Amino acid sequence: MKRLTREADRQPEAQSRRSAVKWLVSLSALTISAVVVLSACSSSGDSKQHQHGSELFETTESFAVAPSFLTDYSKLTQDLYAQVGSVAEILKEINCYCGCMDDAERKHDSLYRCYIGETDEDSITWTNHSASCGICMEELEDIIEMNKAGKTTDEIRDAIDAKFKPSI
After folding, report:
1. According to the model, what pLDDT value does residue 137 have?
2. Residue 76 — pLDDT band, cuts 50, 70, 90?
3. Is 55 within 8 Å of 106 (Cβ atoms)?
4. CB neighbour burial string for 117-151, b if at least 16 within 10 angstroms, e if fewer
5. Closest by alpha carbon to 136, among 89, 80, 87?
């Protein structure tokens, strides 16, 4: 009888340990997921700081010559960067909503600055700022699509603001 009682006592202990292990595994998975989501490039609306890490700048002779840093990125990213020159004037009129326009150290004045650091007669200085930012890339993708559809800069700006501007 004592033997059965001891085994019966052990079963709840074993179940309790299994439950604790499952709980710890679930908590670990949740923590990892939260870290990934929070470290992704996104805007939460109430965030005043946005960390993109170190920006890399590269100068090429024109919009037609892609910066070499793009070889480290996807074909979609390369294709979108290749179209920056065709919508450059529109990009200068569009806000970026990833948080870079609020960054005190490297404040951007438009979505254009997420792709281009500066230009002069003989060169274009590209930045990789947006290459790893989903918001910057999605904004550019939408702008290219709307521009091809014949939308005006004002219509494009209104659509981007409606889609990306945080509601207050």
Report:
1. 95
2. very high
3. yes
4. bebeeeebebbbbbbebebbbbbbebbbebbeeeb
5. 80
Q: How far is the CA of 136 from the CAs of 28, 110, 114, 128, in angstroms? A: 31, 11, 7, 11
pTM over 0.90: no
Residue 68 phi, psi (nearest 5):
-70, -25
Q: How far is CA 9 from CA 6, 16, 23, 154, in A?
A: 5, 11, 22, 73
Query: Which helix (H) or strand (E) is 43 found in, with range?
Result: none
Tell me the Ramachandran region of residue 53: left when phi exceeds 0, alpha when psi lies from -120 to 50, beta otherwise: left
Among the ranges 1-10, 14-23, 132-141, which has the highest mean pLDDT value? 132-141
* Model pLDDT, residue 31: 54
Written as six digits, the tokens of 63 are 């919009």
Mean residue pLDDT of the chain comes to: 78
162-166 own/partner pairs: CB under 8 Å, 24+ apart: 164/43, 164/97, 164/135, 164/138, 164/139, 165/95, 165/97, 166/43, 166/44, 166/45, 166/46, 166/97
Amino acid at 159: A
